[in-house]
Design brief:
By secondary structure, the chain is α+β, with helices and mostly antiparallel strands. It contains 18 helices and 18 strands. The strands form 5 sheets. Strands 5, 6, 9, 10, 11, 12 and 13 form a 7-stranded mixed sheet that branches. InterPro entries: IS1182_transpos (IPR047629), Tnp_DDE_dom (IPR025668), Transposase_InsH_N (IPR008490).
Length: about 550
Protein backbone atom coordinates (compact mmCIF):
# COMPACT_ATOMS: atom_id res chain seq x y z
CA UNK A 1 0.00 0.00 0.00
CA UNK A 2 1.42 3.34 -1.04
CA UNK A 3 1.98 5.90 1.69
CA UNK A 4 2.06 8.84 -0.73
CA UNK A 5 -0.45 11.51 0.16
CA UNK A 6 -2.90 12.29 -2.62
CA UNK A 7 -4.86 15.54 -2.80
CA UNK A 8 -8.55 15.18 -3.52
CA UNK A 9 -9.63 16.64 -6.87
CA UNK A 10 -11.83 19.27 -5.22
CA UNK A 11 -9.31 20.21 -2.54
CA UNK A 12 -8.24 23.89 -2.44
CA UNK A 13 -4.67 22.86 -1.48
CA UNK A 14 -1.78 23.02 -3.91
CA UNK A 15 1.10 20.60 -4.17
CA UNK A 16 4.40 21.91 -2.82
CA UNK A 17 6.09 20.67 -5.99
CA UNK A 18 3.76 22.37 -8.45
CA UNK A 19 4.10 25.87 -9.81
CA UNK A 20 2.27 28.57 -7.93
CA UNK A 21 -1.08 29.61 -9.41
CA UNK A 22 -1.11 32.69 -11.58
CA UNK A 23 2.30 32.18 -13.17
CA UNK A 24 0.63 31.44 -16.48
CA UNK A 25 -0.97 34.90 -16.50
CA UNK A 26 2.28 36.79 -17.20
CA UNK A 27 2.92 36.92 -20.93
CA UNK A 28 4.73 39.04 -23.47
CA UNK A 29 2.15 40.30 -25.96
CA UNK A 30 2.90 41.64 -29.43
CA UNK A 31 0.85 44.70 -30.42
CA UNK A 32 -1.18 44.03 -33.57
CA UNK A 33 -0.63 47.39 -35.27
CA UNK A 34 2.89 48.34 -34.23
CA UNK A 35 4.49 44.92 -33.81
CA UNK A 36 6.04 46.02 -30.49
CA UNK A 37 6.22 43.60 -27.56
CA UNK A 38 4.70 44.44 -24.13
CA UNK A 39 4.57 42.67 -20.79
CA UNK A 40 0.94 42.15 -19.79
CA UNK A 41 -0.70 40.16 -17.02
CA UNK A 42 -4.20 38.77 -16.84
CA UNK A 43 -5.48 39.75 -13.36
CA UNK A 44 -7.79 36.73 -13.36
CA UNK A 45 -4.70 34.55 -12.98
CA UNK A 46 -3.68 36.23 -9.72
CA UNK A 47 -4.34 34.32 -6.50
CA UNK A 48 -4.49 35.47 -2.88
CA UNK A 49 -3.51 32.29 -1.12
CA UNK A 50 -5.80 29.72 -2.68
CA UNK A 51 -8.48 32.23 -3.72
CA UNK A 52 -8.53 33.99 -7.03
CA UNK A 53 -8.09 37.73 -6.71
CA UNK A 54 -11.33 38.31 -8.61
CA UNK A 55 -13.32 36.20 -6.16
CA UNK A 56 -11.56 37.79 -3.19
CA UNK A 57 -12.52 41.30 -4.39
CA UNK A 58 -16.12 40.25 -5.01
CA UNK A 59 -16.38 38.75 -1.54
CA UNK A 60 -15.06 42.00 -0.09
CA UNK A 61 -17.69 43.95 -2.05
CA UNK A 62 -15.10 46.20 -3.69
CA UNK A 63 -16.60 46.06 -7.18
CA UNK A 64 -15.47 49.59 -8.07
CA UNK A 65 -12.20 48.23 -9.43
CA UNK A 66 -14.11 46.18 -12.03
CA UNK A 67 -15.78 49.32 -13.37
CA UNK A 68 -12.44 51.17 -13.57
CA UNK A 69 -10.77 48.22 -15.33
CA UNK A 70 -13.61 47.82 -17.84
CA UNK A 71 -13.53 51.51 -18.76
CA UNK A 72 -9.77 51.43 -19.27
CA UNK A 73 -10.01 48.19 -21.28
CA UNK A 74 -12.40 49.95 -23.68
CA UNK A 75 -9.71 52.44 -24.73
CA UNK A 76 -7.38 52.25 -27.73
CA UNK A 77 -3.72 52.40 -26.68
CA UNK A 78 -2.15 52.41 -30.15
CA UNK A 79 -0.83 55.96 -29.71
CA UNK A 80 0.88 54.94 -26.46
CA UNK A 81 2.34 51.75 -27.93
CA UNK A 82 3.73 53.56 -30.97
CA UNK A 83 6.12 55.59 -28.80
CA UNK A 84 8.18 52.56 -27.77
CA UNK A 85 11.15 51.17 -29.65
CA UNK A 86 10.58 47.95 -31.57
CA UNK A 87 13.69 46.33 -30.07
CA UNK A 88 15.03 45.79 -26.60
CA UNK A 89 13.42 44.51 -23.44
CA UNK A 90 9.61 44.44 -23.52
CA UNK A 91 8.11 47.29 -21.43
CA UNK A 92 4.99 47.06 -19.31
CA UNK A 93 1.72 47.42 -21.19
CA UNK A 94 0.55 51.08 -21.31
CA UNK A 95 -2.91 49.92 -20.26
CA UNK A 96 -1.54 48.44 -17.03
CA UNK A 97 0.70 51.43 -16.31
CA UNK A 98 -2.20 53.84 -16.67
CA UNK A 99 -4.33 51.62 -14.48
CA UNK A 100 -1.73 51.86 -11.71
CA UNK A 101 -1.30 55.65 -11.99
CA UNK A 102 -5.00 56.55 -12.22
CA UNK A 103 -6.07 54.14 -9.51
CA UNK A 104 -3.43 55.59 -7.21
CA UNK A 105 -4.55 59.18 -7.86
CA UNK A 106 -8.14 58.13 -7.15
CA UNK A 107 -6.91 57.09 -3.69
CA UNK A 108 -5.15 60.43 -3.18
CA UNK A 109 -1.68 59.06 -3.99
CA UNK A 110 0.50 60.89 -6.52
CA UNK A 111 4.04 60.39 -5.23
CA UNK A 112 5.92 58.05 -7.56
CA UNK A 113 7.38 56.09 -4.67
CA UNK A 114 3.97 55.76 -3.06
CA UNK A 115 2.57 54.48 -6.36
CA UNK A 116 5.38 51.91 -6.47
CA UNK A 117 4.42 50.79 -2.97
CA UNK A 118 0.70 50.76 -3.81
CA UNK A 119 1.26 48.38 -6.73
CA UNK A 120 2.73 45.82 -4.34
CA UNK A 121 0.30 46.21 -1.43
CA UNK A 122 -3.20 47.14 -2.65
CA UNK A 123 -5.42 44.33 -3.97
CA UNK A 124 -7.64 46.68 -5.96
CA UNK A 125 -4.56 48.13 -7.62
CA UNK A 126 -3.40 44.61 -8.47
CA UNK A 127 -6.62 44.02 -10.38
CA UNK A 128 -6.65 47.34 -12.25
CA UNK A 129 -2.90 47.20 -12.98
CA UNK A 130 -2.67 43.45 -13.56
CA UNK A 131 -0.29 42.92 -10.66
CA UNK A 132 2.67 44.73 -12.24
CA UNK A 133 5.19 46.33 -9.87
CA UNK A 134 7.25 48.93 -11.76
CA UNK A 135 9.88 51.05 -10.03
CA UNK A 136 9.11 54.71 -9.37
CA UNK A 137 11.52 55.82 -12.10
CA UNK A 138 9.68 53.75 -14.70
CA UNK A 139 6.37 55.32 -13.63
CA UNK A 140 7.81 58.83 -13.95
CA UNK A 141 9.29 58.20 -17.39
CA UNK A 142 5.98 56.75 -18.56
CA UNK A 143 4.09 59.91 -17.56
CA UNK A 144 6.61 62.20 -19.29
CA UNK A 145 6.72 60.06 -22.43
CA UNK A 146 2.94 60.13 -22.89
CA UNK A 147 2.26 63.69 -21.71
CA UNK A 148 0.66 64.76 -25.00
CA UNK A 149 -1.83 61.88 -25.06
CA UNK A 150 -2.70 62.21 -21.39
CA UNK A 151 -3.54 65.92 -21.60
CA UNK A 152 -5.67 65.65 -24.74
CA UNK A 153 -6.48 62.50 -26.73
CA UNK A 154 -6.74 59.99 -23.90
CA UNK A 155 -8.72 62.37 -21.69
CA UNK A 156 -11.18 63.07 -24.49
CA UNK A 157 -11.56 59.43 -25.50
CA UNK A 158 -12.08 58.14 -21.95
CA UNK A 159 -14.49 60.96 -21.07
CA UNK A 160 -16.58 60.21 -24.16
CA UNK A 161 -16.75 56.55 -23.10
CA UNK A 162 -17.77 57.55 -19.55
CA UNK A 163 -20.53 59.81 -20.89
CA UNK A 164 -21.81 56.98 -23.06
CA UNK A 165 -21.65 54.38 -20.27
CA UNK A 166 -23.46 56.60 -17.77
CA UNK A 167 -25.98 57.99 -20.26
CA UNK A 168 -24.99 61.53 -19.32
CA UNK A 169 -26.10 64.51 -21.36
CA UNK A 170 -23.97 67.58 -21.94
CA UNK A 171 -26.44 70.13 -23.32
CA UNK A 172 -25.91 72.24 -20.22
CA UNK A 173 -22.44 72.81 -18.78
CA UNK A 174 -21.16 74.75 -15.80
CA UNK A 175 -17.68 76.20 -15.54
CA UNK A 176 -15.44 77.16 -12.68
CA UNK A 177 -11.80 77.65 -11.80
CA UNK A 178 -9.66 77.81 -8.71
CA UNK A 179 -6.18 78.77 -7.55
CA UNK A 180 -3.73 76.01 -6.59
CA UNK A 181 -0.31 76.76 -5.16
CA UNK A 182 2.79 75.88 -7.16
CA UNK A 183 5.63 73.64 -5.98
CA UNK A 184 7.81 76.41 -4.56
CA UNK A 185 8.13 78.51 -1.43
CA UNK A 186 6.40 81.89 -1.27
CA UNK A 187 9.07 83.10 1.16
CA UNK A 188 11.84 83.21 -1.48
CA UNK A 189 10.27 85.49 -4.08
CA UNK A 190 12.46 87.88 -6.05
CA UNK A 191 11.61 91.43 -7.07
CA UNK A 192 13.32 93.32 -9.89
CA UNK A 193 16.44 94.42 -8.01
CA UNK A 194 16.99 91.08 -6.25
CA UNK A 195 16.55 89.16 -9.51
CA UNK A 196 19.03 91.38 -11.34
CA UNK A 197 21.57 91.08 -8.52
CA UNK A 198 21.32 87.28 -8.46
CA UNK A 199 21.58 87.04 -12.26
CA UNK A 200 24.65 89.30 -12.36
CA UNK A 201 26.33 87.28 -9.62
CA UNK A 202 25.66 84.05 -11.53
CA UNK A 203 27.17 85.51 -14.71
CA UNK A 204 30.30 86.65 -12.87
CA UNK A 205 30.68 83.18 -11.39
CA UNK A 206 30.32 81.63 -14.84
CA UNK A 207 32.94 83.99 -16.29
CA UNK A 208 35.38 82.76 -13.67
CA UNK A 209 34.42 79.08 -14.09
CA UNK A 210 33.67 78.42 -17.76
CA UNK A 211 33.74 74.65 -17.32
CA UNK A 212 31.14 74.62 -14.53
CA UNK A 213 27.99 73.04 -16.00
CA UNK A 214 25.94 73.92 -12.92
CA UNK A 215 26.86 77.58 -13.33
CA UNK A 216 25.79 77.46 -16.99
CA UNK A 217 22.44 75.98 -16.03
CA UNK A 218 21.88 78.61 -13.34
CA UNK A 219 22.65 81.46 -15.76
CA UNK A 220 20.23 80.04 -18.32
CA UNK A 221 17.53 79.67 -15.66
CA UNK A 222 17.96 83.20 -14.33
CA UNK A 223 18.05 84.65 -17.86
CA UNK A 224 14.70 82.99 -18.51
CA UNK A 225 13.40 84.45 -15.24
CA UNK A 226 14.46 87.92 -16.36
CA UNK A 227 12.65 87.45 -19.68
CA UNK A 228 9.42 86.35 -17.98
CA UNK A 229 9.70 89.16 -15.43
CA UNK A 230 10.06 91.78 -18.20
CA UNK A 231 7.01 90.43 -20.01
CA UNK A 232 4.92 90.79 -16.87
CA UNK A 233 6.23 94.31 -16.27
CA UNK A 234 5.15 95.36 -19.78
CA UNK A 235 1.75 93.69 -19.35
CA UNK A 236 1.14 95.59 -16.13
CA UNK A 237 2.17 98.87 -17.71
CA UNK A 238 -0.28 98.34 -20.58
CA UNK A 239 -3.10 97.74 -18.12
CA UNK A 240 -2.14 100.70 -15.96
CA UNK A 241 -1.22 98.65 -12.89
CA UNK A 242 1.73 99.17 -10.57
CA UNK A 243 4.92 97.21 -11.20
CA UNK A 244 6.80 97.81 -7.94
CA UNK A 245 5.08 94.87 -6.21
CA UNK A 246 5.80 92.37 -8.99
CA UNK A 247 7.80 89.29 -7.91
CA UNK A 248 8.44 85.73 -9.04
CA UNK A 249 10.06 82.51 -7.86
CA UNK A 250 13.42 81.65 -9.38
CA UNK A 251 12.63 77.92 -9.25
CA UNK A 252 9.09 78.27 -10.67
CA UNK A 253 9.05 81.45 -12.76
CA UNK A 254 5.99 80.48 -14.83
CA UNK A 255 3.77 80.53 -11.73
CA UNK A 256 2.00 83.82 -10.96
CA UNK A 257 2.01 85.34 -7.47
CA UNK A 258 -1.70 85.72 -6.76
CA UNK A 259 -4.15 85.64 -3.87
CA UNK A 260 -5.13 82.19 -2.65
CA UNK A 261 -8.81 81.28 -2.37
CA UNK A 262 -8.38 79.36 0.87
CA UNK A 263 -6.20 81.87 2.67
CA UNK A 264 -5.66 85.60 2.89
CA UNK A 265 -2.10 85.55 1.63
CA UNK A 266 -0.52 85.37 -1.80
CA UNK A 267 1.74 82.70 -3.27
CA UNK A 268 3.07 81.52 -6.66
CA UNK A 269 0.24 79.47 -8.13
CA UNK A 270 -1.71 78.41 -11.21
CA UNK A 271 -5.39 78.60 -12.18
CA UNK A 272 -6.94 75.32 -13.37
CA UNK A 273 -10.45 75.42 -14.88
CA UNK A 274 -13.08 72.83 -15.83
CA UNK A 275 -16.46 72.48 -17.54
CA UNK A 276 -18.81 69.89 -16.03
CA UNK A 277 -22.24 68.56 -16.97
CA UNK A 278 -25.24 67.97 -14.72
CA UNK A 279 -23.76 64.65 -13.53
CA UNK A 280 -20.56 66.48 -12.57
CA UNK A 281 -18.50 64.72 -15.24
CA UNK A 282 -15.74 67.01 -16.51
CA UNK A 283 -16.01 67.40 -20.29
CA UNK A 284 -13.20 69.95 -20.67
CA UNK A 285 -10.22 71.16 -18.68
CA UNK A 286 -7.53 73.82 -18.98
CA UNK A 287 -4.79 75.40 -16.91
CA UNK A 288 -3.52 78.97 -17.21
CA UNK A 289 -0.98 80.74 -15.01
CA UNK A 290 -3.39 83.53 -14.03
CA UNK A 291 -6.62 83.67 -16.07
CA UNK A 292 -9.88 81.75 -15.95
CA UNK A 293 -11.51 83.68 -18.79
CA UNK A 294 -8.88 83.21 -21.50
CA UNK A 295 -9.39 79.44 -21.64
CA UNK A 296 -13.18 79.38 -22.11
CA UNK A 297 -13.03 79.19 -25.92
CA UNK A 298 -10.51 76.33 -25.88
CA UNK A 299 -12.54 74.44 -23.27
CA UNK A 300 -15.75 74.79 -25.31
CA UNK A 301 -13.94 73.36 -28.33
CA UNK A 302 -12.60 70.45 -26.28
CA UNK A 303 -16.03 69.74 -24.86
CA UNK A 304 -17.45 69.70 -28.39
CA UNK A 305 -14.85 67.11 -29.42
CA UNK A 306 -15.76 64.96 -26.41
CA UNK A 307 -19.54 65.18 -26.70
CA UNK A 308 -19.88 65.63 -30.45
CA UNK A 309 -21.54 69.06 -30.29
CA UNK A 310 -21.34 72.40 -28.54
CA UNK A 311 -23.43 72.77 -25.37
CA UNK A 312 -26.67 74.71 -25.61
CA UNK A 313 -26.16 76.52 -22.30
CA UNK A 314 -23.12 77.55 -20.29
CA UNK A 315 -23.39 78.60 -16.63
CA UNK A 316 -20.53 80.72 -15.25
CA UNK A 317 -20.14 82.75 -12.09
CA UNK A 318 -19.66 86.50 -11.90
CA UNK A 319 -15.91 86.27 -12.36
CA UNK A 320 -16.49 85.33 -16.02
CA UNK A 321 -18.49 88.47 -16.90
CA UNK A 322 -15.89 89.40 -19.48
CA UNK A 323 -15.89 90.52 -23.11
CA UNK A 324 -13.71 87.60 -24.24
CA UNK A 325 -16.10 85.09 -22.64
CA UNK A 326 -19.14 86.72 -24.23
CA UNK A 327 -17.42 86.74 -27.63
CA UNK A 328 -16.37 83.07 -27.31
CA UNK A 329 -19.92 81.92 -26.55
CA UNK A 330 -21.49 84.08 -29.28
CA UNK A 331 -19.02 82.73 -31.83
CA UNK A 332 -20.01 79.15 -30.94
CA UNK A 333 -23.76 79.86 -30.61
CA UNK A 334 -23.82 78.95 -26.92
CA UNK A 335 -26.32 80.59 -24.56
CA UNK A 336 -24.30 82.21 -21.77
CA UNK A 337 -25.80 82.66 -18.31
CA UNK A 338 -23.43 84.75 -16.20
CA UNK A 339 -24.26 87.47 -13.66
CA UNK A 340 -22.28 90.67 -13.52
CA UNK A 341 -19.54 90.82 -10.94
CA UNK A 342 -20.79 94.09 -9.47
CA UNK A 343 -23.97 93.86 -7.42
CA UNK A 344 -26.48 96.71 -7.93
CA UNK A 345 -25.84 99.75 -5.75
CA UNK A 346 -22.75 101.62 -4.64
CA UNK A 347 -19.45 100.02 -5.66
CA UNK A 348 -17.53 98.79 -2.61
CA UNK A 349 -14.22 99.56 -4.32
CA UNK A 350 -14.79 103.10 -5.60
CA UNK A 351 -17.66 104.07 -3.21
CA UNK A 352 -19.79 105.33 -6.12
CA UNK A 353 -22.57 103.91 -8.30
CA UNK A 354 -21.36 101.22 -10.69
CA UNK A 355 -21.80 101.68 -14.43
CA UNK A 356 -24.44 98.95 -14.50
CA UNK A 357 -26.77 101.26 -12.51
CA UNK A 358 -26.94 103.61 -15.51
CA UNK A 359 -29.60 102.40 -17.97
CA UNK A 360 -28.98 102.87 -21.68
CA UNK A 361 -31.82 103.78 -24.07
CA UNK A 362 -30.82 102.59 -27.56
CA UNK A 363 -33.70 104.39 -29.30
CA UNK A 364 -32.76 107.80 -27.83
CA UNK A 365 -29.02 107.09 -27.52
CA UNK A 366 -29.06 108.34 -23.94
CA UNK A 367 -28.39 107.05 -20.42
CA UNK A 368 -30.61 107.42 -17.35
CA UNK A 369 -28.68 107.79 -14.09
CA UNK A 370 -29.77 106.29 -10.73
CA UNK A 371 -31.32 109.67 -9.78
CA UNK A 372 -33.49 109.64 -12.92
CA UNK A 373 -31.65 112.32 -14.89
CA UNK A 374 -31.09 111.93 -18.63
CA UNK A 375 -27.44 111.79 -19.77
CA UNK A 376 -26.84 113.03 -23.32
CA UNK A 377 -24.09 112.21 -25.78
CA UNK A 378 -21.11 114.51 -25.24
CA UNK A 379 -18.25 113.04 -27.27
CA UNK A 380 -17.44 110.33 -29.82
CA UNK A 381 -13.86 109.04 -29.87
CA UNK A 382 -12.34 106.66 -32.40
CA UNK A 383 -10.18 103.77 -31.28
CA UNK A 384 -6.39 103.89 -31.18
CA UNK A 385 -3.68 101.30 -30.61
CA UNK A 386 -3.72 101.99 -26.89
CA UNK A 387 -7.39 102.82 -26.28
CA UNK A 388 -10.73 101.47 -27.42
CA UNK A 389 -13.34 103.54 -29.24
CA UNK A 390 -16.00 105.01 -26.97
CA UNK A 391 -18.98 107.39 -26.72
CA UNK A 392 -19.12 109.67 -23.67
CA UNK A 393 -22.41 110.69 -21.95
CA UNK A 394 -23.10 113.26 -19.23
CA UNK A 395 -25.66 115.63 -17.70
CA UNK A 396 -25.68 119.14 -16.24
CA UNK A 397 -27.90 118.07 -13.34
CA UNK A 398 -25.05 116.71 -11.19
CA UNK A 399 -24.51 120.03 -9.34
CA UNK A 400 -27.82 119.96 -7.47
CA UNK A 401 -28.28 116.15 -7.35
CA UNK A 402 -29.20 114.72 -3.91
CA UNK A 403 -27.12 111.53 -4.45
CA UNK A 404 -24.10 113.22 -5.97
CA UNK A 405 -21.78 111.99 -3.19
CA UNK A 406 -22.77 108.41 -4.05
CA UNK A 407 -22.29 108.96 -7.79
CA UNK A 408 -19.09 110.93 -8.36
CA UNK A 409 -16.19 112.57 -6.57
CA UNK A 410 -15.78 115.19 -9.32
CA UNK A 411 -17.96 117.95 -10.66
CA UNK A 412 -19.84 115.68 -13.10
CA UNK A 413 -20.32 111.95 -13.64
CA UNK A 414 -19.55 110.76 -17.16
CA UNK A 415 -20.27 107.36 -18.66
CA UNK A 416 -18.22 105.87 -21.49
CA UNK A 417 -19.95 103.40 -23.76
CA UNK A 418 -17.74 100.94 -25.66
CA UNK A 419 -18.77 98.76 -28.62
CA UNK A 420 -18.93 95.62 -26.46
CA UNK A 421 -21.33 97.25 -23.97
CA UNK A 422 -24.23 96.27 -26.20
CA UNK A 423 -23.50 92.61 -25.58
CA UNK A 424 -23.01 93.26 -21.87
CA UNK A 425 -26.41 95.00 -21.65
CA UNK A 426 -28.06 92.08 -23.42
CA UNK A 427 -26.52 89.63 -20.95
CA UNK A 428 -27.69 91.78 -18.02
CA UNK A 429 -31.25 91.68 -19.35
CA UNK A 430 -31.08 87.92 -19.80
CA UNK A 431 -29.93 87.44 -16.19
CA UNK A 432 -32.89 89.49 -14.90
CA UNK A 433 -35.38 86.86 -16.08
CA UNK A 434 -36.82 84.64 -13.35
CA UNK A 435 -36.43 81.40 -15.32
CA UNK A 436 -32.79 82.15 -16.05
CA UNK A 437 -32.02 82.89 -12.41
CA UNK A 438 -33.68 79.62 -11.44
CA UNK A 439 -31.63 77.73 -14.02
CA UNK A 440 -28.43 79.50 -12.98
CA UNK A 441 -28.94 78.33 -9.40
CA UNK A 442 -27.91 74.83 -10.58
CA UNK A 443 -24.36 75.97 -11.41
CA UNK A 444 -22.96 75.64 -7.92
CA UNK A 445 -24.08 72.01 -7.49
CA UNK A 446 -22.84 71.06 -10.96
CA UNK A 447 -19.24 72.24 -10.88
CA UNK A 448 -18.04 73.36 -7.47
CA UNK A 449 -17.98 69.80 -6.01
CA UNK A 450 -15.40 68.95 -8.69
CA UNK A 451 -12.66 70.99 -7.04
CA UNK A 452 -13.90 69.92 -3.61
CA UNK A 453 -13.29 66.29 -4.65
CA UNK A 454 -9.91 67.10 -6.20
CA UNK A 455 -8.76 68.81 -3.03
CA UNK A 456 -10.41 66.61 -0.41
CA UNK A 457 -10.22 63.11 -1.92
CA UNK A 458 -7.30 63.36 -4.33
CA UNK A 459 -5.19 65.74 -2.21
CA UNK A 460 -4.68 68.30 -4.96
CA UNK A 461 -4.06 71.16 -2.55
CA UNK A 462 -0.71 71.94 -4.14
CA UNK A 463 1.01 70.93 -7.36
CA UNK A 464 3.97 68.57 -6.95
CA UNK A 465 5.57 69.18 -10.36
CA UNK A 466 7.39 72.29 -11.59
CA UNK A 467 6.95 74.08 -14.89
CA UNK A 468 3.77 74.89 -16.79
CA UNK A 469 3.93 71.76 -18.98
CA UNK A 470 4.46 69.46 -16.01
CA UNK A 471 1.66 71.14 -14.05
CA UNK A 472 -0.74 70.75 -16.98
CA UNK A 473 0.18 67.06 -17.14
CA UNK A 474 -0.37 66.64 -13.41
CA UNK A 475 -3.76 68.37 -13.51
CA UNK A 476 -4.87 66.25 -16.49
CA UNK A 477 -4.12 63.04 -14.58
CA UNK A 478 -6.16 64.31 -11.63
CA UNK A 479 -9.15 65.16 -13.84
CA UNK A 480 -9.03 61.77 -15.60
CA UNK A 481 -8.95 60.03 -12.21
CA UNK A 482 -11.82 62.23 -11.03
CA UNK A 483 -13.95 61.26 -14.05
CA UNK A 484 -13.29 57.59 -13.32
CA UNK A 485 -14.45 58.15 -9.74
CA UNK A 486 -17.62 59.85 -11.02
CA UNK A 487 -18.24 56.94 -13.39
CA UNK A 488 -17.95 54.51 -10.48
CA UNK A 489 -20.42 56.53 -8.40
CA UNK A 490 -22.95 56.85 -11.23
CA UNK A 491 -22.72 53.27 -12.46
CA UNK A 492 -23.16 51.91 -8.95
CA UNK A 493 -26.48 53.73 -8.83
CA UNK A 494 -27.55 52.22 -12.15
CA UNK A 495 -26.36 48.68 -11.37
CA UNK A 496 -29.09 47.73 -8.84
CA UNK A 497 -31.81 48.72 -11.33
CA UNK A 498 -30.32 46.65 -14.13
CA UNK A 499 -29.61 43.80 -11.75
CA UNK A 500 -33.30 43.74 -10.84
CA UNK A 501 -34.30 43.79 -14.51
CA UNK A 502 -31.77 41.36 -15.92
CA UNK A 503 -30.85 39.28 -12.87
CA UNK A 504 -33.68 36.71 -13.20
CA UNK A 505 -33.10 36.41 -16.95
CA UNK A 506 -29.39 35.90 -16.42
CA UNK A 507 -30.03 33.22 -13.77
CA UNK A 508 -32.31 31.35 -16.17
CA UNK A 509 -29.66 31.49 -18.88
CA UNK A 510 -27.05 30.13 -16.49
CA UNK A 511 -29.38 27.26 -15.53
CA UNK A 512 -29.95 26.36 -19.17
CA UNK A 513 -26.22 26.52 -19.87
CA UNK A 514 -25.50 24.23 -16.94
CA UNK A 515 -27.91 21.48 -18.07
CA UNK A 516 -27.62 21.80 -21.83
CA UNK A 517 -24.04 21.24 -22.88
CA UNK A 518 -24.89 21.77 -26.54
CA UNK A 519 -26.34 25.18 -25.83
CA UNK A 520 -23.31 26.02 -23.69
CA UNK A 521 -20.97 25.04 -26.52
CA UNK A 522 -22.97 27.08 -29.03
CA UNK A 523 -23.22 30.28 -27.02
CA UNK A 524 -20.55 30.18 -24.28
CA UNK A 525 -20.56 33.94 -23.93
CA UNK A 526 -24.08 33.90 -22.51
CA UNK A 527 -22.97 32.06 -19.38
CA UNK A 528 -20.67 34.93 -18.51
CA UNK A 529 -23.00 37.65 -19.69
CA UNK A 530 -22.17 41.12 -18.46
CA UNK A 531 -22.97 44.68 -19.38
CA UNK A 532 -19.50 46.17 -19.80
CA UNK A 533 -20.83 49.62 -20.57
CA UNK A 534 -22.56 49.62 -17.20
CA UNK A 535 -19.65 48.17 -15.29
CA UNK A 536 -21.76 45.22 -14.10
CA UNK A 537 -20.85 41.58 -13.52
CA UNK A 538 -23.50 38.92 -13.12
Amino acid sequence: MSTAHKIAPDSPQFSLFDDLPGKEGRIVRTAVHSGRRFVTIDPRSIFIGTTRLEDHIKQAGQTSVFIVADLLDSQDFQAFEARYAATGRAPYSPRLMLGLILYGIMQGIHSLRDLQRLARMDLGCMWVAGGISPAHGIIGRFIVLHAESLTKDFFESLTAQILKATGSRSNRLAGDGTVIEAACSHYNLLKADALKERADAARRHLDANRADDCAKHEVQSLTECERIFEQRVQARKRSGRKTDTLALSAVEPEAIVQRQKRSRGTAPSYKPSVLANENRIVTAMALHPSSETKVIGAMLDQSARVTGSQPEELLLDAGYFDDSVIAATLERDVSLFCPEGQEPGVSKKSKVFHKSEFLYDAAEDTYRCPAGHTMLLLKVSGGTEKKRAFRSYGTSACGNCAVRSQCTKGAKRKIERHPEDEQRDALRQVMQQRQVRSLFSQRQAMVEPVFSHLRGRQNLNRFRRRGLRAVKREFALHVIAYNLARAVALLKRISPLFAALFGPLNAAIRLLCRHMSQLHAAIPAISTYRLISLGMRF
